[in-house]
Every structure is written in C-alpha cells, then in structure tokens.
C-alpha cells in the first residue's frame, strides 16, 4: 500500500498580515432582475473582473441541499474519502492542488460538469448510495449554468456583440469542458500560534476558463487582488453568487474584461464550504479576440490558441503563475 505523507504545516504558504486585511465594500452587486444589470455587468468586468449577483433565480434549496451533501462527504473517515482520490485531475484531493507542488489548507472534490460523467463515476466519488448526492450536484449545476449563461448573454449585449450567445453557447455545447469543485477549508486551530499571520487555503491564481461561479457558506476567507495590487477580503454571502472573469474571457474581449487574481485564506475557527462552477469551452475551440470587440485598427493582444493548448500548458504551471504570459504577442 502506498501511503502519501501529509505536508507539514511549515510547508504551507503563510501570508504576513499584522493588520487585518481590509474588507472591501466596493464589490459591484448586480441585481439580475433590474434593467440596469447589463451596463453594470460590463462595468464590473472591466473594473474588477468580479461581481456579486442577487435575484439570480437559483433556488436557495439547491445550494443548501448540495452543501449538506458536501458536508456529509467531507465528514466521512479519511480512508473513505481517499477512495475517491487522488485528484488527477478529477476526484478527491487533500492539501495538494494541481500536479506541480501547490499545497493549501483544503480538501476538495473536483469533477467534470458533464452529467453523464457524474453518473458513471458516482460509485467511487459519491459512495455506496450515490443518488442523492449525484442529483444535488446535477440540479445545482443545471440551475447555475442557466443563470451564468444569462449573465454571459447580457455581457454580449452590453458589448454589442452578435449573436448574443457567442459566449454562452460555449458552455451550452455538449462538448463544453466545464468543471465543478466542492471545497472544504477546515478550521486550523494552530493558526493562533502563527501570531498574526494567515495560512493559505487556496493560493493566489486566475481561473483559466471563461467564467467562474462561486457560492460559499457564511465563512470568510475569499480575497481578490485589486488593480493596485492590494488584497481585499470579500464578505461572504450564502444567498448570492460571486462571479469572476476567467483568462479565456479576457482573451476573447482582448483584455477589456479582466481575469481577476483571487485566493482563499484559512479560518482559525470556522469551516468554509464552497462550490464552484467553471464554465469552459469545448477543447477544440479557438480562443481569440472577437473582431466585434476591437476598435478600428486595434490589434489582438494574444496569439491564437485552442482551449486544449491552453489547458495543456496550464497543467505545467504552478497556481500563482501568469498562464497568459506565454500567449501574449
Ligand atoms: C484553478 C481554477 C480551478 O480550480 C481549476 C484548477 C486546476 C486544478 O486544481 O486541477 C489547476 C489550476 C486551476 C490552474 C493551474 C493548474 C490547474 C491546478 C494547477 C496548478 C480546477 C482549473 O481549471 O485551473
């Protein structure tokens, strides 16, 4: 039997923070039921690459049902959870993130968002009685996908791009390479001894896909990096979704929308549970700046690449690396 040793606490990244990080009150809040949402969405993607949506239409019950199932899974004995691992990339992962040595104070389940895969792998990932967990994941993903596709269509309208499903069709495609992730950040009591420093739950990075949708319980920890390089804490809100622009949408809008750097800090006292949908295109899709977003004479900032090529190179990087750098012209 191969026993993988756990990384010791001193192998985790510690962030110096002698004063508490600023809690940011300037995060754009977009009410999807209001007529000004289109304009505000475009502004948020340009300024922050990040925003919160309310009145989003996803039943709260879908979130709580899945959260409950996730907590049940993460409460299983370690040996049971390991049966769904390692995350290569899909499956159960504990402290190790990605294939290149990143670690964080986290355990997670990483899945493809394809429903037929979810059912096939059910028994290994979702245990002996997978039906309830599996349907909670499927219902949640379906509803979130509808909501985020509406957001993408409003963004296309706001950018005056036609057809308006130019982004959303990539997520709706049968071949869409979208991921789903359930994260559990256990409380870390040893944090008290770190005298004012913070422990990294999930290290700083940008998301490679088109768009990501985050929902968490009411435990803090999530931070974004502002344009001036400062890190700010995002107050959690279990009723809303936080949405961020991914690298691919940055390229398709020729840098007009920003793929925001974000990270999660571990909490000393409370457990954080989050669920993330990463909307990606089909592997064969060419990721290029759309001609309709370019002004006259504007040149594309990036070389042409397919989503497959981008992913292949992304999996050779560390979390904090700038994955778009090598595709810049
Ligand atoms: C970051 C965003 C998503 O969580 C993820 C991550 C993926 C993984 O955990 O397997 C990666 C990371 C993420 C980017 C660089 C590579 C791949 C870990 C890593 C070091 C699921 C994704 O798609 O890219």
TrEMBL record:
Similarity section: Belongs to the iron/ascorbate-dependent oxidoreductase family. GA2OX subfamily.
Assigned keywords, A-Z: Dioxygenase, Iron, Metal-binding, Oxidoreductase
Domain of life of the source: Eukaryota
Keyword Ribonucleoprotein: no
Domain Fe2OG dioxygenase: 175-281
The reaction(s) this protein catalyses: gibberellin A1 + 2-oxoglutarate + O2 = gibberellin A8 + succinate + CO2
Signal peptide residues on this chain, from the entry's feature table: none
MF annotations from Gene Ontology: gibberellin 2-beta-dioxygenase activity; metal ion binding
InterPro entries: DIOX_N, IPNS-like_FE2OG_OXY, IPNS-like_sf, Iron_ascorbate_oxido_reductase, Oxoglu/Fe-dep_dioxygenase_dom
PANTHER family: 2-OXOGLUTARATE (2OG) AND FE(II)-DEPENDENT OXYGENASE SUPERFAMILY PROTEIN-RELATED
Keyword Hydrolase assigned: no
UniProt-recorded name of the protein: gibberellin 2beta-dioxygenase
EC number: 1.14.11.13
Listed Pfam families: 2OG-FeII_Oxy (PF03171), DIOX_N (PF14226)
């Amino acid at each position: 039997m191969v026993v993988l040793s756990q990384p010791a606490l001193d192998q985790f990244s510690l962030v110096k923070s002698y004063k508490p990080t600023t809690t940011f009150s300037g995060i754009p809040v977009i009410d999807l039921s209001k007529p000004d949402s289109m304009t505000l969405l475009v502004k948020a993607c340009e300024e922050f690459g990040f925003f919160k949506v309310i009145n989003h239409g996803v039943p709260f019950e879908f979130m709580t049902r899945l959260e409950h199932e996730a907590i049940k899974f993460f409460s299983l004995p370690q040996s049971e959870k390991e049966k769904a691992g390692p995350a290569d990339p899909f499956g159960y992962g504990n402290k190790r993130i990605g294939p290149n040595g990143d670690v964080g104070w986290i355990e997670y389940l990483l899945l493809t968002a394809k429903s037929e895969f979810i059912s096939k792998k059910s028994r290994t990932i979702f245990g002996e009685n997978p039906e309830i967990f599996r349907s909670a994941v499927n219902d949640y993903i379906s509803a979130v996908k509808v909501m985020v596709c509406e957001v993408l269509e409003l963004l296309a309208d706001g950018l005056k791009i036609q057809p308006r499903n130019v982004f959303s069709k990539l997520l709706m495609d049968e071949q869409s390479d979208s991921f789903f992730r359930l994260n559990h950040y256990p409380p870390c009591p040893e944090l008290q001894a770190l005298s004012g420093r913070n422990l990294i739950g999930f290290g700083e990075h940008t998301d490679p896909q088109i768009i990501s949708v985050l929902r968490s319980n009411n435990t803090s920890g999530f931070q974004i990096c502002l344009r001036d390089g400062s890190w700010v804490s995002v107050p959690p809100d279990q009723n809303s979704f936080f949405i961020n622009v991914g690298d691919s949408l940055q390229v398709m809008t020729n840098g007009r929308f920003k793929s925001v750097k974000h990270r999660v800090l571990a909490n000393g006292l409370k457990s954080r549970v989050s669920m993330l949908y990463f909307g990606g295109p089909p592997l064969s899709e060419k990721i290029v700046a759309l001609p309709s977003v370019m002004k006259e004479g504007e040149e594309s900032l990036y070389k042409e690449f397919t989503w497959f090529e981008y992913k292949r190179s992304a999996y050779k990087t560390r979390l904090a690396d700038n994955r778009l750098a090598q595709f810049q012209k």
